[in-house]
Amino acid sequence: MAALYDTIGKGYADYRKPDPRIAAMIRASLGDAESVVNFGAGAGSYEIAGLHVAALEPSSEMIAQRPASLAKAVRASAEDAPFADKSFDAATAFLTTHHWRDQEKGLSEMKRVARKRCVIFDGGLDALLGFWLLRDYFPDMLTIPAPVLSMDLVHRVFGAVRTLPVLVPFDCTDGFLCAYWRRPEAYLDPGARAAISFFHNARDVEMRVEKLRRDIEDGTWARRNAHLLNETEHDYGYRLIIAELAD
User: Fold this and answer.
1) How many domains does the chain have?
2) Most buried residue, 27, 57, 156, 247, by CB count within 10 Å?
3) What is the overall mean pLDDT for the chain?
């Protein structure tokens, strides 16, 4: 994972700016936590100002993009957090579990180092089945097994959890995979694609993006997706998973 993001992480922070509406949900979910450790912290998206934050990140490229105002990151993997048991009020993980080598070990490490709760911002696969980018341009990617975090695994590690839907606003500032669902032209930007790991796993990207370009220019995309044009937010399966930990 460190090697992957050392390669694909260049310019990541320019496109992956935390969306304030999602950030507000995350802040609320942390409740009374005063200290937080952020697993797979990347460039620091959604790390909350005013809290004592420790950041865990395996990629030196991503660490280099962290603003000076944020905590200095510890270079380590989610599966091997270099912190003592119950060192923090909360542990967080934002759009990162699909990159972990061992999701169960990573979740267990979050649980081990947190005293009060764990908060995970993650995406499921089912809602992507109707996402036009995959449906019309990358349908083969829907047949490839993806390391999506399963709720069965979440329950096995944490027991009962709360889940909250995170609807994606049409003007989302965090350029994750579904962020541009009403702005298809954004996927034509090589920088935007470079900040989305999906495109590094897909085949024939340039050919498929050129098809999208033609469809935008001749109106095919708008006719096919007219039902989206008046929506201001959409559910693409992103969720906040909140696990309260027993004393």
Assistant:
1) 1
2) 57
3) 91
